[in-house]
Amino acid sequence: MYAIVEISGKQFKVEKKQKLFVNRLDIAEGKKISFDNVLMVNDGSKSSVGTPNVSGVQVDAKVLKHLKSDKVIVFKKKRRKGYKVRNGHRQAITEIEISDILTGVSKKATAKKADAPKKADAPKKAEAKKTVATKKAEPKKASAKKESQDLSSMSVAQLKTLAKDKGITGISSMKKADLIKALS
Fold first, then answer.
1. Same domain as 9, residue 64
2. CA distance 59 to 48
3. Which pTM does this prediction carry?
4. pLDDT digits over 62-112, tens only?
5. What's the number of domains the chain is made of?
6. Residues 19 and 98 occupy one common structural domain
7. CB within 8 Å of 74: residues ≥ 6 apart
8. Distance (Å, whole) CA 49 – CA 70
9. End-to-end Cα distance, the chain
10. Is residue 179 in some structural domain?
11. What per-residue string of b and e applies to 1-40 under the rule 16 or more CB within 10 Å gives b?
């Protein structure tokens, strides 16, 4: 079984008990970390490809140690000018070991447990907002949506004439989206 995981901006093909070096992670040595940004999982007989991520799949790993990679020499030279610069660089990396590839992990169940107290407060806030809001505001929003839809269906030349009539300056360098934003 293997998975393709995105870890700190790079994609890695990982298997259980595999050790790999990734860009420095802000996790202490010996701690466990789980990556849920899994792009593909292959289980021997069937493979799942995510769009962009496979849901319900998680890769668990353990941070072994933090270290620096091999030195990379950066050499700059301009010919016939007597200019030579030699610099070195060592990238900070973390060695991790993949402990397990878990399938069937539910993010919603853990998210529901964490959000349960927050949802109890949410209806009170919603009721307070409803009492403050007036009925006059709703027709204005509907008319504003109609205007923005009408503006998006217009050509750039029509939008520029409307902007000129309203007295908007700098319309010659504006794009269609900018014109719509300025008119609304």
1. yes
2. 14
3. 0.54
4. 999 999 999 999 999 999 999 999 999 999 999 999 999 998 876 654 444
5. 2
6. yes
7. 85, 86, 87, 88, 89
8. 34
9. 54
10. yes
11. ebbbbebeeeebebeeeeebebeebeeeeeeebebbbbbb
